[in-house]
Design brief:
This protein is an alpha/beta fold. It is built from two helices and eight strands, in the order βββαβββαββ. The protein is 20% helix and 40% strand. Strands 1, 2, 3, 6, 7 and 8 form a six-stranded mixed beta sheet that branches. 35% of the residues are buried.
């Protein structure tokens, strides 16, 4: 699984003009599922996201997690994280999992995260609009294959 994480003051997802998920302070997380991902990747991704210390303490050091600051997560499915532009100008998505696999993995990740943090979501496979007030900005990326 791949994730792009943004520290935010607030973030909201809308689909067809209706809000599907919204948070205040927390992390906006775009998640993609790869064809080689296993259930172990779900656990690794959830553990990393829940414990990620990107919020500043009283000394200005990034040493607090979303839970430490009373924040939440807005988790958005995003297969384009597996896009490759290595050849030509149009991305190819050969390593992105098909929806039949990706949707249950995305839903399992959300359930795992809900055990420790408030989680809001987008709508899997929908055309979503994401509004975010980035904080910092702080933007990170990881791939569970490299953890």
């Amino acid at each position: 699984m791949r994730a792009v994480i943004q520290r935010v003051k607030s973030a909201r997802c809308t689909v067809n003009g209706a809000v599907t998920g919204e948070i205040g302070v927390g992390l906006l997380v775009f998640v993609g599922v790869g064809i080689e991902d296993t259930e172990r990747d779900i656990a690794k991704c959830a553990e990393k996201l829940a414990g990620l210390r990107v919020f500043e303490d009283e000394n200005g050091k990034m040493s607090r997690s979303a839970a430490d600051v009373g924040g939440g997560l807005l988790v958005i499915s995003n297969f384009t994280l597996y896009g490759s532009v290595r050849h030509g100008r149009r991305p190819e998505f050969l390593t992105a999992a098909r929806p039949e696999k990706a949707k249950p993995y995305y839903e399992a990740l959300v359930k795992e995260l809900e055990k420790t943090l408030p989680v809001a979501c987008g709508v899997f496979g929908a055309d979503m609009r994401i509004d975010a007030c980035n904080d910092g900005p702080v933007t990170l990326f990881f791939d569970t294959a490299q953890l």
